[in-house]
Amino acid sequence: MDQIELEVQPRSVVGKKVKALRREGLVPCVVYGRTDSMNIQTPALDAARAIGQASGQLITLKVDGEDEGRMVLAREVQRDVISGQLLHADFLEVDITERLQVSVPLLLVGEPSLVEANEAVLLQALNEVEIECLPTDILQSIEVDVSGLEDFSDAIYVRDLQLPSTIELLTPGDEMIARLDTIEEEEEEEEEEALFEVVEPGEVEVIGRGAEEEEEEEE
To answer: Pairing between strand 168-169 and 70-80?
Structure first.
């Protein structure tokens, strides 16, 4: 994967005043980890593009005034739930020689014959797994071939994943990833979920875990 770079500038504006930055098309961010945390800002479109391209992998942060780039991971991303506008991002600076723990999404590929014949539905019980590896070995996603599921008794578990030797799988091997189910049962589950679905309003959507947001205007 090509190296992803993001140019940022140190930020002096904090608190409720960051709303003015957003009106100018900038997004307030924080970089933390190896040194003291630093408030930074960058064009919102550039940040959104870099975070989307990285998808959990390394980003080279080019801080204005610093000679060398910082290797970071996007750890917390906040977006407006209505417009999708990027509101804030936290970046964790890492040492590329030290192993770290990250979550990697699972991507189901292929189609079981029973699903193709419309005789069954495919259920995904696990969306991501936890791994430990060097920052340079982080996977964007892990593909899981489900075409081999031929019977309702078949299932794919975490222990069935084939990963490079440089990656340690932390999620328990007996956790199920995918299995087949009858169409009738699936339809009944969907009807049940529809009856009890509760939507809670929220101002922002938070993805991942990172440093605490120092800006309180979002409360």
So the answer is: unpaired
